[in-house]
Amino acid sequence: MSVKLLYFAWVREKAGKAEEVVELPENIKTVSDLMAWLRSRGPEYVAAFEQSDVIRTAVDQTHVAHDTAIADAREIAFFPPVTGG
Amino acid sequence: MSVKLLYFAWVREKAGKAEEVVELPENIKTVSDLMAWLRSRGPEYVAAFEQSDVIRTAVDQTHVAHDTAIADAREIAFFPPVTGG
Amino acid sequence: MIRVQQNDFDIGAEIEALRAGRTDIGAIVSFTGTVRDTAPHGGAKDAPITQMTLEHYPGMTEKELTRIEAEANERWPLQASLIVHRTGALKPGENIVLVVTASAHRHAAFEAAQFLMDFLKTNAPFWKKEDGPEGGDWVDARESDDDALKRWDKSDEAAE
Amino acid sequence: MIRVQQNDFDIGAEIEALRAGRTDIGAIVSFTGTVRDTAPHGGAKDAPITQMTLEHYPGMTEKELTRIEAEANERWPLQASLIVHRTGALKPGENIVLVVTASAHRHAAFEAAQFLMDFLKTNAPFWKKEDGPEGGDWVDARESDDDALKRWDKSDEAAE
Questions:
Q1: Which domains does chain D have, with CATH numbers?
Q2: Given pLDDT bands bounded at 50, 70 and 90, which one contains residue C160?
């Protein structure tokens, strides 16, 4: 499955990119799986996803929990807790 | 004792005047005494002070209760509950 | 700062004057009360109104507004505050009252603005008369305004 | 109505646009969030800031703000509402966010404005970076903002 990943704020800075399109292995079922897989891809991802419990996720622009299934997702975003307003 | 009386809103309309200066008899000690004395002065005052429990009073521009002593007051105002804002 | 005036006020200009040149403010809340074209006349029925007349007690009004504003500044860390209240004849849609509060934090600004309005509604000597097709009526004070005061009892005050 | 923009907004003009020609509004509340010149950096120390940069998630931001505004309009009888949020580089004293609510009654307008801010603070995908003499720091989310949400739990909601 091909999916677009977006990174914001310090997740973006640590990952060294704002977005990318990746081919997900079959065994990646949830947001947590995806974060673990990303950490395996290099030190910049280790740095970005080190504090994985702090990172928030949106699947197709909707906030989701880490145990959410990502089947059929087209766009998955990772970011720190929001600080607008 | 000479004191200035002020009337506002429907108290003013019923009393038929916005203000007057009166000489208070010696036996008028409290706001309640003053309202009773005013009612004795004519039908317009009876109309104005009929619902005396609804009427609010300020002595020298400070809200007071009806049992407040009015000794040394220079200005006493009678009005309905306020409705600004 | 407090002001009682017949003329209209400019909400944007008042806020700008309050904040001009300041960089210590984080939150500005404004409340504007306006004349509605209908009003509940002492019951469930809504009556159309064509004009509202605001009477007040010159001297005491300013004294009460000053007292209320001082109380708000004592309770919340405000960088600035403003109360402007109009008097005289007003048409539906026109401004009646403006309250502005500025603070470092939003909860203080919001709470202080609500406090100012709740106290103004129950303590400042203003009286509204509403004119409609069937004549004029003095507006009755509302119990809900007295109830609104209760949440500001010192003992109930939430820690900021 | 919601808007995300780099340009500044004019508080007075936004309020006027919202109320223009209307005589059914009784209460208008505005909240403006502004950039402060100091900020607590994850602790007690206040650090001077020279610039703030607002990053956001285009697309999702608009979706979240629309959702939050719809929720407020469902909970309170609002005649109008507005959320404007800026992005990009902002200096101390500049506007960040504007929320305006208009209702027949003041409690609804006040509560809806606070609700909008509380939900925006915790749900809308914006991130602040503060630049100071010692470099830039992403602002940490505050627990107090999460706490502020709790009072809007449906079960606790006070009757209007």
A1: 2-9+24-37+45-134 (3.90.1170.40)
A2: very low
